[in-house]
Amino acid sequence: MKKHFLIPCFMLLATFNILANSKITAYLTYASFNVPAKTPYIETYLSIIGNSVNFVKNASGKFQGAVEISITFLQNGDIKNAQKYTLNSPETMDTSIAYPNFIDQQRFTLANGVYTMEVSILDKNSIVEKPFVTQVPITINYNESTILVSDFQLLESYSKSVNPTILTKSGYDLLPYVSTFYPNNIQKLKFYSEIYNSKKILGTDQKMIFSYFIESYEKRIKLNDYSAFSKQTANDVNILLTEFDISKLPTGNYNLVLEVRDKENKIQAEKKLFFQRQNTNGKFSYEDLKSVDVKNTFVTSYTNMDTLVDYIRCLRPISNFSEVKYAENQLKERKLEIMQQFFYNFWKSRNETEPQLAWLEYYKEVMKVNKEFDTYGLKGYDTDRGRVYLQYGPPDQRSKVEAEPSAYPYEIWEYYRLIDKSLVTTYSENKQSNKKFVFYNPDLVTNKFTLIHSTAQGEVYNTRWEILLHKRDSQSHDMDAEKVQQHFGGNADDNFRNPR
């Protein structure tokens, strides 16, 4: 069994999902495109992590993995398009090194409308009998009355096509990058997009400007170092195939933005894509904080250094990557004025008109968390339960089990609708449904409950959580086991399926 830590991936206009279970890890993205005067289509991009798949000897004596994939598009219960196939990995002779990852791309023609995409993935060489299944809502709406932009297709590489394949579009072979997370080792953000109806709307031989740039996600600030444009003539279909060097782009949340402007510089169409960057070499500049005037604001009364430090620390559960990093640096330097500017700017970026009200409402929740989850040496907001409560809000269902045979004390939280407050400003996006968290207390003395499993994106995912929960007096030597033997009074599985 492999323990997976899932990276959160979200899109504003085309949903990204990450698929995982205890035996296989796969990353799925998709993008929609249009063929004028014909039918739109969806492209799916699937990346299978080689080390999560079982490799067995094939007829040629080499090791190879095989994954059974089923992708179905449903509309009002009816199947509109579907494919079921086996995806084979590259062959390998050496099983002592990492197994190779492998990528799959498919195309599905679909008329305008609302669909449910159902994806099923099964390792054919695994003893696991049931496939992993997920469903994603999809809307396709390519009309001819306005200029429209396709979804972005993020790319690992691109080149002029010699022998066209399914990877080919507009004369180029496009190898997909199947994620919206860019780690340290990725230095380029490459993407492809199509623009439709510009000739029909603007007229033949009319000039256009495609302005594309990266902006900060939270404050929608355009980054001038990551901005460019392309001048083109209106056509039935225009394409934009380009890239940004992100080697110096700091860790943080961003939007990739494309604006289609006419010759009067009026925006005719726009597309945005959310992505995340992790970059230990990038330097985030908060020079703009030095110009933040905090005079006559509520933070001028926060002159006690220890109090302000505590206030900033409690923001961590709802802070983005760059805010966390910057706050940590300032807490080390302990410069009062800069800390005041950071604190004020943090809340002003979330509530432009009433930043103090936003802070006070949040601090009420911090006080609740500190009262209930404080433990030896830790404030409540620094505990796992406190962090989850502040980041996602109070759970809709909370099962508390203090005494169950052979199990440590544990809690199971369920959220009917989950919104990550560290990723959004208005808290109206990035919604997940029916997500659960499992906490347990193995020391039996303090009030410190550790998060051991969650079905939410970006949280620890461990299908052996029941084994861990019952280690109090039940030891399992089967590393692939995911369930404990049934015993009197054992209700963890039932409580997980039905928190109450």
Integer tally of domains: 4
Shape category: globular
Structural class: alpha+beta
- The CATH topology name of the largest domain reads Immunoglobulin-like
Annotation, overall tally of beta strands: 27
CATH class of the largest domain: Mainly Beta
CATH architecture of the largest domain: Sandwich
Number of helices: 8
Uncertain regions: pLDDT < 50 for 5+ in a row?
A: 1-22, 424-429, 477-482
Q: Give the C-alpha Rg.
A: 25 Å
Describe the structure.
With 500 residues, the chain is of the alpha+beta class. The protein folds into 4 domains: 1-142, Immunoglobulin-like (Sandwich), CATH 2.60.40.10; 144-283, Immunoglobulin-like (Sandwich), CATH 2.60.40; 287-373, no CATH class; 390-497, no CATH class. It has 8 helices and 27 strands. The strands form 7 sheets. Strands 12, 13, 14, 15, 17 and 20 form a 6-stranded antiparallel sheet that branches. Strands 16-22-21-18-19 form a 5-stranded mixed sheet. The chain has a 4-stranded antiparallel sheet with strand order 2-3-4-9, with no helix packed on it. A hairpin with a 5-residue loop joins strand 5 and strand 6. Helix 3 (321-333) runs antiparallel to helix 4. The radius of gyration is 25 Å and the shape is globular. Residues 1-22, 424-429 and 477-482 have low confidence and may be disordered.
